[in-house]
Protein 1
Amino acid sequence: MGADLSHYTGRPSGLVGQQIAGYKIERMIGRGGMAVVYCAKDLRLDRTVAIKLIAPERARDDTFRRRFTHESRVAASIEHPHIVPIFEAGETDGVLYIAMRYVPGLDLRGLLDREGPLPVPTALRIAAQVASALDAAHDHDLVHRDVKPGNILVAAGTDRDHPEHIYLTDFGLTKKSLSLSGFTTAGEFVGTLDYMAPEQISGRPVDGRCDLYSLACVVYETLAGGPPFVREEDAALLWAHQYDAPPPLTERRPDVAPAADEVLAKALAKVPEDRYGSCLEFVAALRAGAGASGTAPRGVLVGRRHTTSAPSSALRRTAPDPPA
């Protein structure tokens, strides 16, 4: 018997144990500004999935619904080993949902909170896999616009040479490039402030280079233990992204080769045209500049706790999610 969604408010309580569009809700595993994500059982194929339910006020917007349908289909068409597969996207009783692969493991936010700065080889492996996923999306004219540790899932790898397998998630609500800026029609920010590119903040058109900037912020954090810009006030943080030079990585991580500072400075350039041409080009330059000899204070082990293709439960400074 299906769930009664006629009075669904977007709150996570009350849906556990109920069925939605052929999925039995088991537990909540994440939530963000515009969605709640549950672990669920696909009753038709007897498999565990992650199902994201979109906030009802978004579903009532006809423009949002059309974009949601289109972007979900495009995202689902991208077959890439480092992008969380989308199984289905649709609407039931006025509620929009996305069903996707459930990925066991930590997200990068949880890993960094637990381990602190990562060894250089680990950080480079993670960066390369995320970069590959982003470049694949950009080849389909999709811009993620919210690359952050909470959207990077770290699953157990296959062997000692591949100790972790990375998935980039939240591609079900990405944006077509070129015509869209960093703002919604209501003037709300799209993205997470710690990782937001200057052109998103100023409302200029965005393309894949804004994801490259965000990836560079994430990579910086994996090596330094914090994002490049840390400010007490959001306004000061927005200013820093637009006008302040990022502090050299080697000031926080002296065991990293100095050449890495130049690489990160280019990836974090204020003007998109001054950055690298692709995310993989950036990672290749970082690998050449930083080397693989750096160590971290503690070793890194991929955990077995469960996360999902959901917004991280440890979101901080997270702006409203974009319409699809």
Protein 2
Amino acid sequence: MKISVPGARRISTRTATAAGLALAGLLVTAAPAATAAPMAAPPTLRSAPSAVLAAPDIPLANVKAHLTQLSSIAAANGGNRAHGRAGYLASVNYVKGKLDAAGFTTSVQQFTSSGATGYNLIADWPGGDPNQVVMSGAHLDSVTSGAGINDNGSGSAATLEAALAVSRAQLQPAKHLRFAWWGAEELGLIGSKYYVNNLPSAERAKISGYLNFDMIGSPNPGYFVYDDDPEIEQTFKDYYAGIGIPTEIETEGDGRSDHAPFQNVGIPVGGLFSGADYIKTAAQAQKWGGTSGQAFDRCYHASCDTTANINDTVLDRNSDAIAYAVWTLSAATTVPPAGTVFENLADVTVPDNGAAITSSVTVSGLTGNAPPALKVGVDIKHTWRGDLVIDLLAPDGTAYRLKNSSGSDSADNVIATYTVNASSEVANGVWKLRVQDIASSDTGYIDSWRLTF
């Protein structure tokens, strides 16, 4: 993701390409201390590691063709694809046939619920580190009242097409790729719970992250991103920021879909959602279009959830976002190359005895987390530097105190390099220098500041 900042520039020999984010750990929210050192000259930069292979554009026509097939399957089997019904097993066989032909290793897992046999379909793409598994999934069953084309033919079809795109590209990811289609989600996440509960703890530990896609083609859509794991969340946000689409945190169905069993055993999770029976607000309609005062999906769990109940634009964008996440998160994770510098040269006035101000630097094109010795170079012109309190703000809002105020420090200017242990923070994102003057009579401004990775 790249955001232009007036007066800002990036000093680097890296190619300007998006790269993968690491999939481990939660961000620390404390405000660790930093140490100061004399301002150093800019370091010599070294070149970046190889860029991650760009994710493909997923053809909307292909995704819709799968939806047409699922609709036909429902029509031929009593009008639905529900657990324990012939339409569900026919749906499993359709998806399995596509994956088998594409070179995946597939397996069908059976379970029993409500007196009927249920099925999970698991597909593994050959290669990648078996100890680091990136898993994507969607529930394949519908409710009994209809064909379930948005809920959840949309997520199932887009996940299938992302898997087939992996095959077409003959992708050789650093991490192992696994895809899943769950049964009996509509009865209480039965299929995904069965899978997770029967997965040995050693195998659970190998799953770096699980991505869930449940209802991603809603006719009056929103663009919602799960906020469960910060790095998976940021991956999706980066994709949407790159195409200029604002997102919101998904709260409507939080914990009500197949990511919940994974999250409950400590596996990092994330996903996308376009809305169900909640009502779109006026602010959301202004941001995304559509109709305020109306449900995101008026056909939620109803017989009208047919192929006519799909918004092509949101389905297309979400399908591409799935591919972006699969490609990005399965790529090799590397630390940012030592010596990469991002700098803002724009002057920002610091109000005398006033509110805190910030200056931003957008970091992009790096992979993994920030280093344990992130260098923060600060050049602030001020007639009494003891008045100043200075913090570095990470992209998630975590504050790192660089300098406290001191009434006895009457010297001019703050020209220093601070060292921050930012290893718990994702490198890419908008970093901010926050400065506040807490006493009167002296004035100043931020002249420039930089981050050296």
Protein 3
Amino acid sequence: MSTIVIQADEARKLVVGKLTEAGLHIHHAEKVADVLVHADLRNVNSHGVLRTEHYVNRLQAGGINPGAHPTFTQSGPVTGVVDGDDGFGHVIADMAMDYAMDMAKKSGVGMVTAINSSHCGALSYFVQKAANAKLIGIAMSHTDKIVVPFGGKTSFLGTNPIAYGVPAKSKKPFILDMATSNVALGKILQAQEEGKTIPKGWGVDEKGAPVTDPHQVVSLSPFGGPKGYGLSVIVDIFSGLLAGAAFGPHISKMYGDLDQKRKLGHYFCVINPSFFTDVNVFLEQMDRMMMELQSVEPAPGFDRVYVPGEIEQLHEERNRVEGISIALSVYEFLTK
């Protein structure tokens, strides 16, 4: 499959252009573009600008409110709820994280759920925002069913990602952003787009048997068997039930029913380390922990030990200079 390399700024402008052309307010379009390009810079292309066409299709079908006005209600000293008004999840999640950060700065912790939302993109964007402010960020989001429960044949849970961002003193933040499935659905879609096979264990067919052809994937598998399955249920509880949203098979499909509002829920928590310990010591210890991890002698077949998020950060440094790689078909959609 052909790819093309373009600068991040150009990709951002193209995405904003497509979304505003479809009726989205420019400020919301800019936030969506920021989150998508963030993913492409980190080589997490499954959550990058290739999603634009789907968002445009959903906008045009009426499944996302282009004139959404998300609102925040503070429900307690360190808690609150964002009602997304069926707008773009990227905008809604960013707003929820901002309120959680404000509460954490003042009171040590902030927890915000979001409701009446839609797909919000890579959670790393939001937890990194907290970490850049020397705060600890946690984010969770449920998604529509595509993952089989451990021991099950048919899907019940979503890929249900969870992310953590932890600041350090001189080193870049520790960023863990992972699906509770073996891989995100976007990686299956990317393999389909690029005409590649997938590793065994990523997905199963209608009989529940593992497959390597991405076009045969009916459901994904949880990572780590029962452990990933258990974490996936936790994510659904925090971002679904706690937010007053649906769970598992009751969540509307991302790639079906494009005219239906998805009503997704998200969960955000921000912790201010200075309320628990000496913040400078904490940040210095984070530096030390990551340096000591990186200095562990590598096992055969590995060049060295990386900390979570480090490989993506190295990609971002390079791609900010050299540009991001996207499928030619995606570029043609963005420029037509």
